[in-house]
Amino acid sequence: MVDFAQEHLAPFLSHLKEGNVISHPLDKNFTAVFYGFTDISATLDALKLTETLIGLSPPRSSKVNKDDYLKFLVGAYLQEVYILEQRLTAYGKKMSRLYKSGGLPEKVKRVVYEPLEKILTIRGSHVHQERFTDDDLNTVSTYVLFSRFKETYAEDVHFEYAQARRKWKRQIEENNRATASIVDQYFDLLFEHMCQQGKFVPPSIK
Predict the structure, then answer these.
(1) I need a surface site. Which of 17, 101, 115, 116 has the fewest CB within 10 A?
(2) DSSP characters for 94-116?
(3) 64: pLDDT confidence band, cut at 50, 70 and 90?
(4) Within 10 Å of residue 156's Cβ, how many Cβ atoms?
(5) What pLDDT, on the 0 to 100 scale, is given for residue 206?
(6) Do 119 and 71 form a contact (C-beta atoms < 8 A)?
């Protein structure tokens, strides 16, 4: 995919340096194929970023509460999983249309949506009502509230936060490994229709 993009973009970049703009009969399909691929890659990077951030200490600022910070990261993670599912589904449908592979969307649903359904259900049940939380996150919030009135609860905040962060860090790490496997299967499925003899073929040429 990257080799195809470099080959396709090289003439454009060369002409742009000279102040010229050229068109190419593959422009629309190139945008659909390549930038759809990069959108999925960017979402995977965002999932990896949340995994990294949740393993780090929160910002040392009185303006950032530990409970809010952790809830924000967990919510961001769930949101990115939802975005990934949406992009995988949309990209699969678009490639099905471009490569005239009618059975592809149903196969994509089995490979993508069904394995991710549990995570998507967690996200979907709260997103239109309030930010996601669970018992561990609620416990952290409770002790943060108590600590505003009694400093003696500061130690409890630290302990409960560490417990909740450890749990979610482990969960996100496990989910990201499973998600990476799902995406690998997804592209193996798509490349059966997008490649010939192991080489990517643009849809208008195939």
Answers:
(1) 17
(2) HHHHHTT-TTHHHHHIIIIIHHH
(3) confident
(4) 17
(5) 45
(6) no
Q: How far is it, in rounded angstroms, from Cα 200 to Cα 195?
A: 4
DSSP 173-195: HHHHHHHHHHHHHHHHHHHHHHE
State the pLDDT at residue 119. Answer: 75
d(CA 64, CA 69): 7
Q: How far apart are CA 168 and CA 67, in angstroms?
A: 13
pLDDT number for residue 26:
55
CA 65 to chain centre: 25
Distance CA 164, CA 137 (A): 6
Amino acid at 120: L
Distance CA 74, CA 194 (A): 35
